[in-house]
């Protein structure tokens, strides 16, 4: 072993140890924001399995001076910020492949080559060739970085003296960078299973936490649970205590959140009721909660991790739909759909795949328990726990406990022709149960094939009894559904949790406001007033429960509105009565206010009465035309924005990545497919619209005549509301600022916004009108607030438009209304309501030329043209 070889090896080690990490850090800084990565790391959104040393380095963010080659590589690759090398990661790029990803792969290969070579393999030819290839890579890296620091650092390191012995000792301790990804059928199945697991174990719990958090605080939930702690497992009790002490839901999982939401009726019931899988058309909030529970159970109870590509795609299509609807429920303040899409496609290293695979399997730890050919019996910890608890009871109580029936689910995991098989089994229920003892078939349902059975508790007393009982039963089942060539059937057993509704106190009722017109003379004396109120009370309480039974309640008279006395012969009085749910004296008193609170309420009401808001804006509408946008049965429309250009109506169809072009005479309909999801839209000219595509950070300029995208503008951050005025686009960026830009995307100036949650805008004359979900803001074009409109009744504002007199029209998604507000913000009225066929209205557009208002429902495919009279 020559001294020259040792020196060459030591100098190559010096490059690997001192040059390559710095070069990788420079590429890293160009591709990834260290501060942004720090936030992402703190939120645990990094899909990488890190070593202890790498965790300590990540804790130092935004400082990356000590990041290793491997840590830089992991983040660059698995954050998807570099294009994959043409040769794929882990291979050797061809000399003609010179993109930055290819050179990153070359740095990794060169590092591993130096670490793995023996001293006598470092010939002079190899050494010179290594140096040449390294300089070529560094020059391309500097060109990519628009600087020459890499080649300068190389020259400095080359001219520095080194301690050969020390360098070789350090080389002996170095480990190769792991960049090889095994690709075979098994590894692809595991990767698909891990990606599905990531949604189940990470994203779905966060969705349910958001839902329950928006309905009740963790500490208040704990108080509801206190009388029922016996109905929770020990682990659930610990979790509830943690939630109470931290007033946070971070530790609660899908099963526990589902249980309390269902038991305490924290949200409205699913369309088909709790415990039943929803139909495709069922899209209530609780329907998706039920879907999340079903997907969690279905995947946690699998006895294998093989997920084929078709099954994988189907899962993610359904997961994405859930995320999409959840984003709607939270008014686009969440990004669940985008997150789920990223889970399907983002890079995952092998360690992360194993982590998520294990996380899903460990939810119930399903294992093979015994085999009675051709049946393999699997069950997990939940069934094991039920068996142990049952057997303890059986030992302690030898009387009638053995006659108790236990409900069990049996899941066939690899059965085909599911629906036909279910129909056959349910039609043969009596035949199957004939001659069975201790076990009774109840019903077969979907979810593979799920058999619901009742088993006498004594049949579960020992493993032998359990096995013989199940085997006899399943042989009768298989005789009716199987063919002779079946080699093996996987069966998973699950306990059924009975949801007996706990006795929960009725929620305190909300006040009901009743308005009456009185003849003014009835207020002449107190006796007259009392007589009228007695009549009102008798009528209300007689009809409130249909039986005439007396109930106690409270009512508060608000100040009389004398606003319309000159036009009416009566005065308007408002009575606040108890909600119909308040049916007992105790519940009525629970609503009672202290004298101080009553005084405060009265003062506040009186103050409001002294500055009345006029509700009768002189604006009215007549329906001119209704449109039913055609859709196939499988299509789920989501028309979030609409415009009218002459006789042409244009709608954004967010869910199907397209624009819908519709002639107002109903003669023609076209679609313009898009690469991104369209959200907000504005008219540029008679043939052109501009469409913002939210978190894709993209604005599309589209010619609706040729039905083509003519140009694309990339924005610095997410883009939302958009309006065109005086040859410029006004675009809401990151919901907090407006970029004024020309049609090439050049930003001319910025305008601050009065809220950090602005969705839609419209620019009219010298004013900018914008909305968040609860308020309307009118500003000057330099961002100065002119007026603000906010009413507690209107909490779900979606889109905004203005007429040529400055009146503002806004859709209200939840209340199914269109509100019009006067140009000074002082007067308003509900212009359209559900009685006008509004059903989740979203898009709205005022055609100034024809004095026509266009409104579209977001999901039903219905749109309306109204003639506006002022």
From TrEMBL:
MF (Gene Ontology): ubiquitin protein ligase activity
The UniProt entry, under Gene3D superfamilies, shows: TolB, C-terminal domain
Region (Disordered) location: 571-607
The chain positions of domain DZIP3-like HEPN read 230-333
Q: List residues traversing the bilayer.
A: none
Which segments show compositional bias classed as Polar residues? 591-607
* Coiled-coil segments on the chain, per record: none
Q: What does the entry give for GO biological process?
A: proteasome-mediated ubiquitin-dependent protein catabolic process; protein polyubiquitination
Q: Which SUPFAM superfamilies match?
A: NHL repeat (SSF101898)
Q: What is this protein called?
A: DZIP3-like HEPN domain-containing protein
């Amino acid at each position: 072993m020559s001294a020259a070889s040792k020196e060459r090896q030591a100098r190559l080690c010096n490059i690997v140890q001192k040059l390559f990490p710095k070069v990788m850090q420079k590429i890293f800084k160009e591709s990834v924001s260290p501060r942004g990565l720090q936030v992402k790391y703190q939120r645990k959104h990094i899909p990488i399995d890190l070593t202890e040393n790498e965790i300590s380095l990540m804790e130092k963010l935004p400082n990356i001076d000590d990041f290793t080659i491997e840590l830089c590589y992991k983040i660059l690759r698995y954050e998807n910020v570099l294009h994959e090398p043409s040769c794929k990661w882990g291979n050797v790029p061809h000399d003609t492949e010179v993109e930055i990803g290819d050179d990153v792969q070359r740095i990794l290969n060169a590092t591993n080559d130096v670490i793995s070579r023996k001293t006598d393999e470092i010939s002079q030819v190899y050494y010179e060739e290594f140096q040449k290839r390294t300089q070529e890579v560094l020059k391309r890296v500097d060109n990519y970085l628009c600087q020459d620091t890499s080649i300068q650092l190389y020259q400095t390191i080359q001219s520095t003296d080194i301690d050969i012995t020390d360098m070789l000792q350090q080389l002996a301790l170095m480990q190769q960078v792991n960049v090889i990804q095994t690709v075979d059928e098994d590894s692809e199945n595991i990767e698909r299973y891990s990606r599905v697991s990531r949604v189940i174990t990470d994203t779905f719990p966060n969705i349910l936490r958001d839902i329950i958090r928006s309905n009740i605080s963790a500490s208040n939930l704990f108080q509801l649970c206190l009388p029922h702690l016996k109905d929770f497992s020990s682990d659930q009790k610990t979790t509830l205590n943690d939630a109470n002490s931290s007033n946070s839901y971070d530790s609660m999982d899908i099963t526990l959140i589902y249980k309390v939401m269902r038991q305490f009726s924290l949200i409205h019931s699913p369309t088909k009721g709790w415990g039943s899988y929803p139909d495709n058309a069922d899209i209530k909030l609780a329907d998706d909660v039920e879907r999340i529970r079903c997907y969690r159970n279905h995947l946690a109870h699998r006895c294998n991790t093989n997920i084929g590509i078709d099954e994988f795609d189907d899962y993610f299509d359904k997961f994405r739909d859930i995320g999409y609807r959840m984003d709607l429920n939270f008014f686009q303040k969440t990004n669940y759909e985008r997150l789920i899409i990223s889970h399907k496609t983002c890079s995952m290293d092998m360690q992360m795949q194993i982590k998520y695979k294990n996380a899903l399997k460990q939810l119930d730890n399903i294992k093979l328990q015994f085999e009675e050919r051709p049946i393999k019996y699997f069950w997990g910890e939940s069934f094991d726990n039920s068996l142990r608890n049952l057997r303890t009871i059986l030992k302690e109580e030898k009387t009638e406990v053995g006659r108790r029936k236990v409900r069990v689910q049996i899941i066939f995991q690899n059965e085909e022709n599911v629906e036909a098989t279910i129909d056959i089994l349910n039609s043969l229920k009596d035949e199957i149960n004939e001659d069975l003892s201790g076990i009774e078939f109840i019903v077969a349902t979907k979810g593979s094939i799920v058999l619901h059975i009742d088993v006498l508790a004594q049949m579960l007393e020992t493993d032998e009894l359990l096995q013989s009982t199940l085997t006899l039963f399943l042989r009768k089942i298989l005789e009716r559904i199987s063919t002779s060539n079946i080699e093996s059937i996987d069966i998973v057993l699950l306990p059924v949790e009975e949801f007996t509704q706990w006795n929960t106190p009725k929620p305190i009722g909300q006040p009901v406001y009743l308005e009456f017109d009185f003849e003014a003379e009835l207020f002449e004396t107190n006796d007259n007033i009392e007589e009228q109120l007695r009549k009102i009370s008798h009528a209300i309480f007689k009809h409130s429960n249909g039986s005439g039974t007396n109930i106690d309640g409270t009512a508060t008279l608000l100040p009389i509105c004398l606003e319309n006395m000159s036009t009416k012969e009566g005065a308007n009085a408002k009575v606040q009565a108890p909600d119909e749910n308040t049916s007992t004296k105790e519940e009525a008193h629970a609503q009672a206010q202290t004298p101080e609170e009553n005084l405060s309420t009265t003062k506040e009401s009186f103050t409001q009465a002294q500055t009345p808001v006029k509700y009768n804006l002189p604006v009215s509408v007549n329906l001119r035309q209704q449109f039913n946008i055609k859709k196939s049965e499988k299509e789920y429309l989501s028309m979030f924005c609409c415009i009218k250009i002459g006789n042409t109506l244009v709608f954004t169809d967010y869910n199907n990545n397209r624009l819908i072009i519709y002639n107002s005479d109903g003669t023609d309909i076209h679609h313009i497919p898009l690469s991104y999801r369209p959200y907000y839209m504005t008219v540029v000219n008679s043939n052109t619209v501009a469409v913002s595509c939210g978190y894709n950070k993209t604005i599309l300029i589209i010619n609706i005549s040729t039905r083509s995208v003519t140009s694309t503008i990339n924005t610095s951050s997410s883009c939302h509301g958009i309006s065109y005025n005086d040859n410029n686009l006004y675009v809401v960026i990151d919901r907090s600022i407006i970029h004024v830009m020309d049609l090439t995307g050049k930003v001319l100036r910025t305008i601050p916004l009065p809220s950090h949650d602005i969705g839609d805008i419209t620019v009219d004359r010298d004013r900018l009108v914008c909305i968040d979900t609860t308020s309307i803001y009118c500003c000057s074009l330099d961002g100065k607030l002119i007026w603000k409109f906010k009413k507690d009744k209107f909490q779900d504002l979606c889109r905004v438009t203005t007429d040529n007199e400055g009146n503002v029209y806004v859709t209200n998604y939840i209340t199914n209304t269109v509100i019009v507000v006067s140009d000074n913000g002082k007067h308003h009225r509900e212009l359209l309501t559900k009685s006008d066929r509004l059903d989740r209205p979203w898009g709205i557009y005022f055609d100034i030329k024809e004095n026509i208002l266009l409104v579209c429902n977001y999901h039903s495919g219905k749109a309306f043209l109204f003639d506006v009279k002022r």
